[in-house]
Design goal:
Helix content: 25-40%
CATH topology of the largest domain: Dihydrodipicolinate Reductase, domain 2
CATH architecture of the largest domain: 2-Layer Sandwich
Keywords: Oxidoreductase
CATH class of the largest domain: Alpha Beta
Family: Belongs to the Gfo/Idh/MocA family.
Pfam families: GFO_IDH_MocA, GFO_IDH_MocA_C3
Mean pLDDT: 97
Radius of gyration: 20 Å
Structural class: alpha/beta
InterPro entries: Gfo/Idh/MocA-like_OxRdtase_N, Gfo/Idh/MocA_domain, GFO_IDH_MocA-like_dom, NAD(P)-bd_dom_sf
GO molecular function: nucleotide binding; oxidoreductase activity
CATH superfamily of the largest domain: Dihydrodipicolinate Reductase, domain 2
Shape: globular
């Protein structure tokens, strides 16, 4: 690779500072060249903290920087569409935080804008770039656990005391299904290589948190009588496991999406034995960045296109409708 991909960061969100910026800086083929905030003091202090060369006091100014190849958008969910489209029109490739949009229709509009501008638009589901998921898919495709019968996954954490958090703004796309439920939904689609046929979701909507879903439990029906059962929440103890159950065994991933140090492993359960599958630690954020750099700089094939993001948003749309209306929604 002849050079590194130069990134601009649109916003100083916690996920950007905690994970994405360090991940890009630790990667092989990326560098973070600029960061923007509507508060110039915030962008300057973040730039100083992470040794980022340029700090801008507006998102527009960063998009006008001719040296920036790609932008990462960690803004609140309701701003994803606007700033992804504006970035595309500025000729910048885009990595946008999940969920890509508030609806599948918005996601399709974003995809159309990116295609028209000839830029890459990618949804930031970093977990799928961790090498263990290719290993898990290989095990499933080889029949290692027999026929897949069911998938179960959870993603919960407790941040309910922070009532001013953007996750608790209904009009900003707040709620647990948008924030963490999107992961089990996406993982099931990824592992099964299928799209769901129907969804049923029950949720707890909290008046203390602008009536967003603070906890949700769902059944996602796929073909061949296989289903995903999942739960997600922002007012529950932290956990994020995934289990794939087969006729001859199962695969357990204790930390499926948020991976603590030393948590890259998974287990293969078969013939009464529990085998630890150890993997060298990998930074999924770095892997994500290096894949996009390879695509943008070397014309490598993009592993996950916008059609995947639109399809995932269709399921999220159905889950939210099911939870609100207390109905089974067919897709």
């Amino acid at each position: 690779m002849s050079r590194k991909l130069k990134w601009g960061i649109l916003g100083c969100a916690s996920i950007a500072k905690r994970a994405v910026i360090p991940g890009l800086q630790e990667s092989k083929f990326n560098e973070v060249s600029a960061i923007a905030s509507r508060d110039i003091d915030k962008s300057k202090s973040t730039a100083e903290e992470f040794n980022i060369p340029e700090a801008y006091g507006s998102y527009e100014a960063l998009l006008e920087d001719p040296d920036i190849d790609a932008v990462y958008i960690p803004l609140p969910n309701h701003l994803h569409k606007e700033w992804s489209i504006r970035a595309a029109e500025a000729g910048k490739h885009i990595l946008c935080e999940k969920p890509l949009a508030l609806t599948a229709r918005e996601a399709a509009e974003m995809a159309e804008a990116a295609a028209k501008a000839g830029v890459i638009l990618s949804e930031a589901f970093m977990y799928r770039y961790h090498p263990r998921y290719d290993m898990i898919k290989d095990l499933l495709n080889s029949g290692s656990i027999g026929q897949i019968r069911a998938i179960h996954s959870s993603f919960t954490f407790n941040n309910a005391a922070d009532t001013q958090n953007v996750r608790y703004r209904k009009d900003w796309g707040g709620g647990s299904i948008y924030d963490v439920g999107c992961y089990p939904i996406h993982a099931a689609r990824l592992l099964l290589d299928q799209e769901p046929e129907a969804v049923t979701v029950q949720a707890f909507f909290s008046p203390e948190h602008d009536d967003v879903d603070m906890m949700a439990s769902g059944l996602i029906e796929f073909g061949n009588a296989v289903s995903l059962t999942f739960d997600c929440g922002m007012w529950a103890a932290f956990r994020n496991p995934l289990e794939v159950l087969g006729t001859e065994g199962s695969i357990e991933v204790p930390y499926a999406y948020s991976i603590p140090a030393g948590g890259d492993h998974f287990y293969l359960n078969k013939n009464g034995e529990r085998q630890l599958i150890a993997i060298s630690e990998a930074n999924a954020y770095s892997e994500q960045g290096d894949h996009l750099a390879d695509v943008i700089l070397n014309n490598a094939p993009l592993r996950f296109g916008t059609e995947d993001a639109i399809s995932n948003m269709k399921v999220i749309d159905a889950c939210l409708l099911s939870a609100r209306e207390r109905i089974r929604v067919t897709l």
